[in-house]
């Protein structure tokens, strides 16, 4: 951390916690778990089942060796000579079959701390930060939102916005102020206009929600200039940036990767305004349900307190399996794998782009994404509304996509459509866009 940069004090974050979070008492049992590890202690504390009753006696699995070749990341066939074999030790299996620490397995947390230092230059333990593992990053984001935002509070969110997060805010009747986006990601000008025109006497938003890499749904990646301006505004107007970054490792653009908000914060006079969420779903397995939050200790501890009273912890077993693979690969292997994954999706993007040019040129407008797995394109139709066309006509013609209106926090018409290119074969892409072109032509009376 630069000499001129300091971490905000723990007391600073009390203003950002929701009333529910401030009222939440720590779990009478789980808060005492760390004491069980002290030498000489005989614990009568937790109602942990006796491991001798568990039927599982060993775990081993086979995984692909890290590779930069996208061809090796296709559908799994039989074992390959280069596959790596991972056996979970009896000691680790015992940990994986039992209740564990709320924030995550200590060894996995240490591995993730090393990852954040290598990728973002942040030493969590030295900056008043903390890491917590959850059952996917969305699990952690939900808990963060409810730990920070009170019912009816104003919040800032990019428009369009990931549809899976919208209910987190609308269910507690938040007032969502939409920040416009374009080909460079979130618009710092739009954000500044909203904040500078804020009604006097009305409490300002405590959070800004953004997906900065390969945004779902737009596919856009925020530029360096935009990110720096947003960080500046966060300091000027005192809000926390919820950096939801599940597509960070799916960057396939030709330009140098833009640093995360979490990394850029080191250039600020103080650190502690970014609450970052990472996911292993897109790079290891979506079924593992492993994500992790990194940010100010006070805020991440509030997430843990929520977990203590809901699902107790993320699955110990999936954490052990994940850790087993990560230790086998080490950081170099992990980075090789993620570069291969990003190249895989880059090729998928190229196939989809070529088909878009063949079938949809003149019918739609779009900007090619540089990360992620989505195309966001505007239908050139008379009423500037894709909803009925996509929900009914496209489906009748045998193609399914999402109309843009589902990604608007406050609703409204949209001429845009989100299409995912992650799963289709080149032949499937060709047929899907042929059907979509037919649909648009019918809607235009061509």
Overview of the structural elements:
The protein has an eight-stranded mixed β-sheet with strand order 4-12-11-9-8-5-6-7, sandwiched between helices. Strands 13-14-16-15 form a four-stranded antiparallel β-sheet, covered by helices on one side. Strands 1-10 form a two-stranded parallel ribbon. The protein is globular. The protein contains twelve helices and 16 strands. The termini are far apart. By secondary structure, it is an alpha/beta fold. Helix 3 runs parallel beside helix 10 and helix 11 (387-396) packs across helix 12 (426-443). It folds into two domains: 15-333, Aspartate Aminotransferase, domain 2; 346-443, Aspartate Aminotransferase, domain 1 (Alpha-Beta Complex). The longest helix has 44 residues, at 316-359.
Q: Report the portion of residues in β strands.
A: 15-25%
CATH class of the largest domain: Alpha Beta
Helix content: 25-40%
Number of helices: 12
In N-to-C order, the SSE pattern is: EHEEHHEHEHEEHEHEHEEEHHEEHEEH
Give the neighbour order of strands across the main sheet. 4-12-11-9-8-5-6-7
Low-pLDDT windows of residues: none
Specify the CATH homologous superfamily of the largest domain: Type I PLP-dependent aspartate aminotransferase-like (Major domain)
Determine the structural class based on helices, strands and strand pairing.
alpha/beta
Number of strands: 16
Mean pLDDT over the residues: 92
CATH architecture annotation of the largest domain: 3-Layer(aba) Sandwich
CATH topology annotation of the largest domain = Aspartate Aminotransferase, domain 2
């Amino acid at each position: 951390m630069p000499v001129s940069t300091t971490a905000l004090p723990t007391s600073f974050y009390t203003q950002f916690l929701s009333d529910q979070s401030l009222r939440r008492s720590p779990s009478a049992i789980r808060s005492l778990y760390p004491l069980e590890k002290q030498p000489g202690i005989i614990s009568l504390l937790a109602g942990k089942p006796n491991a001798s009753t568990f039927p599982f006696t060993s775990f081993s699995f086979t995984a692909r060796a890290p590779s930069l070749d996208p061809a090796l990341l296709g559908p799994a066939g039989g074992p390959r000579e280069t596959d790596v074999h991972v056996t979970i030790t009896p000691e680790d299996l015992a940990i994986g079959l039992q209740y564990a620490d709320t924030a995550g397995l200590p060894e996995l947390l240490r591995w993730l701390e090393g990852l954040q230092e290598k990728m973002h230059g942040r030493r969590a333990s030295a900056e008043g930060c903390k890491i917590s593992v959850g059952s996917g990053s969305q699990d952690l984001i939900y808990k963060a939102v409810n730990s920070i935002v009170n019912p009816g509070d104003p919040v800032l969110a990019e428009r369009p916005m990931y549809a899976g997060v919208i209910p987190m805010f609308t269910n507690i009747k938040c007032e969502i102020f939409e920040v416009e986006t374009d080909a460079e990601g979130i618009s710092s000008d739009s954000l500044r206009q909203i904040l500078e025109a804020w009604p006097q006497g009305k409490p300002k938003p405590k959070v800004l929600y953004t997906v900065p890499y390969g945004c779902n749904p737009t596919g856009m990646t925020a530029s360096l200039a935009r990110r720096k301006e947003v960080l500046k505004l966060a300091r000027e107007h005192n809000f926390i940036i919820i950096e939801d970054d599940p597509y960070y490792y799916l960057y396939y653009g030709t330009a140098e990767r833009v640093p995360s908000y979490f990394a850029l914060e080191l250039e600020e006079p103080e650190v502690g305004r970014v609450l970052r969420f990472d996911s292993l779903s897109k790079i290891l397995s979506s079924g593992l349900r492993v994500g992790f939050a990194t940010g100010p200790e006070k805020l991440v501890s509030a997430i843990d307190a929520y977990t203590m009273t809901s699902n107790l912890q993320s699955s110990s077993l999936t954490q052990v399996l994940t850790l087993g693979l990560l230790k086998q690969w080490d950081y170099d292997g992990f980075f090789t794998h993620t570069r291969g994954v990003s190249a895989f999706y880059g090729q998928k993007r190229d196939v989809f782009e070529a088909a878009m040019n063949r079938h949809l040129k003149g019918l739609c407008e779009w900007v090619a994404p540089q990360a992620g797995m989505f195309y966001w394109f505007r239908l050139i139709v008379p009423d500037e509304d894709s909803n009925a066309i996509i929900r009914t006509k496209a489906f009748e013609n045998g193609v399914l996509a999402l109309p843009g209106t589902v990604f608007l926090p406050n609703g409204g018409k949209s001429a845009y459509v989100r299409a995912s290119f992650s799963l289709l074969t080149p032949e499937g892409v060709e047929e899907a866009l042929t059907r979509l072109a037919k649909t648009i032509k019918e809607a235009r009376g061509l």
